[in-house]
Amino acid sequence: MAGPEGGYALGVDVGTSNTVAVLRWPDGRTRPLLFDGQPITPSAVFLDDAGLHVGRDAQRLAQGDPSRYEPNPKRRIDEPSVLLGGRDVPTADLLAAVLGAVARTAVEAVGFLPPAVVTHPAVWGSRRREVLSTAIVRAGWPPAGEQGTRLLPEPVAAARYFAEVLRRPVPVGASLAVFDFGGGTLDIAVVRNEGTGFAVIGSGGVAELGGLDLDAALVDHLGRMLAPAHPQAWQALAHPATAGQWRSRRQFWDDVRGAKEMLSRTSAAPVPVPGIDQAVHLTREELERLVTPLLRRGVFEAAAVIGACGLTPSQLAGLFLVGGSSRVPLVARLLHAELGIAPTVLEQPELPVAEGALAELATPRARAVASVPAASSATATVTTAAPTSGPGLPVSSIPVSPSGSPVSAVPGMSVSPAGPAGPRPPMGPMPQAGPMPPRRPLYKRPVLWIAAAAVALVGVVAAAALVLLRNDEVDFQPVAEVGRIPSDDTQPYYVYTDVVGDRGYLAYERSGQPLTVIAVELATAKELWRVQTESTAARWDGISALPNAVVAFQSSSIPSDQTRDMTVLDPADGGQDWHRLIGANDSVYAFKDVLVLVDAREQRLLGLDLKTGKTRWERPNPGKAEGLTGTAVYPVQTVADVSGPANASGRPFAPVADDDQRLVQIGADRSATVIDATSGRELKKRTNVANPSDEVVAYNGRLLVAKDEDGYRLSGYDLDIMGEPVNLYTAPEESRRLDILAMCGETRACLLDSAGSDSKSTELVAIDLEKGGQLWRKPAPGATLLVHFGEEVVARATSGDYKFRVFDPDGNETLTREGAVGRVNAGNLLLFNEISSYADDYSVAGLHVGSTDVIEMGQLKDVKTESCSWNTTHIVCAGTTDFLVARFARD
């Protein structure tokens, strides 16, 4: 253990509402630090002439002057400063005050400040982490860094606790979902065991849904009960005017919160009401009726985040509930009922993040001993299941599809809004006024689709995209708003966008309602039509737009024996052409006038007429298979398929559906069958080619198969004859493992490989597909995503330092920058400072192929960048309550 004082260490979880710190003694014992005798301290800050006060002192002082009080500094992370008592106080100073209180308490406990790890939300980009780093220094802690104060994503800390303290099995390659339900926010993440540690592969949440919102629902309910019979008493609580009334209000909210917590243990709880002689009673039934609509939003968001990683809940190694609000029994029950997986929740769910962070400060020896436990023979079945359609069911932070990823039901990503408004908890006397893109499966899951092809090895999947056609430079211009399209809902549950040609498609949902779909003309932001689907659903997976259809999918996060609706709309007027019930694990691939349905339950392929939905042809899956993993399907991609606009995960916005009409089906008997998708006719077949779980790419007349044998080996087949395979490449060392395989040129493939699961050992390799062999190999530490444009390739890290690196045709690294990239066309990229599901102002820039000059274009205002779609001149994104249409280039 690091540190000069005998092995003490400190883990700190600065939450939106409360802060927790856990101290580890040299003998391995862990105990939470006590603040005023309590293991939790409010994250609140109060400013007076003596300086900044924190915790319960701040709460008490706020009763005298609420204008000097900030209850949730973490929520103000995007603001440079906060106005307290007429003074602008830097947000970093507010966080520093909280961390300073933790430091003083630690020094009182052990006599010095031990080495520490401070956690942060997984969705925080570099800007927010920099504010936290500044706060750490201002609090008197060692600077953030490997040799100083460590920073760690909160879900990674929770996963370390789950695996190393609870000793729950999370096999290498398997994933754990973390549901962090605190007082002020809900954060959800999926983390994967990489062998050397955990990595975040997907994250989301509801920014303003937390325990305070549950309290507000209860207060609102009590108000409706009390106001008619006791109007004066309720008026004093709802709109306090004196210091005494403010104290009563705060006590009332505290009592409501206490009753809520009591109802987790009993069926009824009293609530004393100031000004009324008799206490009122709340029952657990009332609590659950009132908060169920709020909690369902969290459950739906969990399903969306899991699905966006290309996973089903049954494929997870566990679902871990942390955060104080997780102790409400209904949270676990709803998650279990909706997702079909029993969550793990502790008696003190506030502690796991802080205690799990301590694992980062283990000595190398301790790390080796206490590393993430692999599955024993009794638990080895808890692994990531093979997908129904091959790698089309990704398992990565940027979920991946095979060379023909299913057409996405969620072109952007399902993005949730902030929580609904309600009674505000008492923050002291608050003022009354407030200021491969390729032919993706038309449907697989709410995932972020990759462009070219991808492979998943031992549960490690990443994404790849490529651009090979024209290199014309886009005339990038400063971002200019064209218009904003209202959603007709103050805060819709989930929002989606897609773009085909010069038309944008927008969609939003409300729980248990039809999906609203809107078509807009991008050049003018003119609304062309707005319709609602004929079917309703508790959750949707969104839309996928094709040149001649718009397809809407109900959620796949349902039990495997249930069905959901797929609705096909006419892009001319939004009218429903047809609909069909499909299974939870089914995939749909789009061709010129046919949708190919991979029917997992019946183990068959169906060719559905795109206009009528009638079955044109049917083929049983080759070979006998158990369960839902008996086949993999790969539409054959062309250069055109992977050369147009594509999002930050490689999902194309304008698929080319009228070029190569073939698909390749890999059967449970290891056969590879080349099929005409329009007729279902078998064109070629070869035995002993690949397993459905192998890594396969079908592109430009070739079938590439990667096998993990003494390292890995890449073989190629000519799709026209399916003759003997050609050995294209063999890993130079047995320790090298294939992470990503993608086409990155008409006759060139690019791949990422690494030594074992060490992401720092990742390298980028270019392969000659005509002659075979390696063209070049370059370091690409931490890269998990490839984007090819023109003759250049971008290797991007989707965790860690979040940097991308641009390599020229000879493998020279020409540009390194933090953020994300999306393809505009074969010669141009859009650069984003961050891809996020939270509405904010985000910077965007342009880059031409062959250039290192980044063209800054300003900011997209009030958008969720995870939802954005674009063509070569315009971009559309979901905002807090509406959709933005903006221009970024001249025609």
Automatic annotation (TrEMBL):
Compositional bias annotation for Pro residues: 420-437
SUPFAM superfamilies: Actin-like ATPase domain, Quinoprotein alcohol dehydrogenase-like
Membrane spanning residue stretches: 447-469
Gene Ontology molecular function: any one: ATP binding
Biased composition (Low complexity): 409-419
Keyword Kinase annotated: no
Region annotated Disordered, chain positions: 57-79, 409-437
Protein keywords: ATP-binding, Chaperone, Membrane, Nucleotide-binding, Stress response, Transmembrane, Transmembrane helix
Protein name: Pyrrolo-quinoline quinone repeat domain-containing protein
Pyrrolo-quinoline quinone repeat domain segment(s): 516-707
Organism: Phytohabitans suffuscus
UniProt signal peptide: none
Presence of the UniProt keyword Transmembrane helix in the record: yes
PANTHER family from the UniProt entry: CELL SHAPE-DETERMINING PROTEIN MREB
InterPro entries (UniProt xref): ATPase_NBD, Heat_shock_70_CS, Hsp_70_fam, PQQ_rpt_dom, Quinoprotein_ADH-like_sf, WD40/YVTN_repeat-like_dom_sf
Taxonomic superkingdom: Bacteria
Protein family according to the UniProt entry: Belongs to the heat shock protein 70 family.
Basic and acidic residues composition-biased segments: 67-79
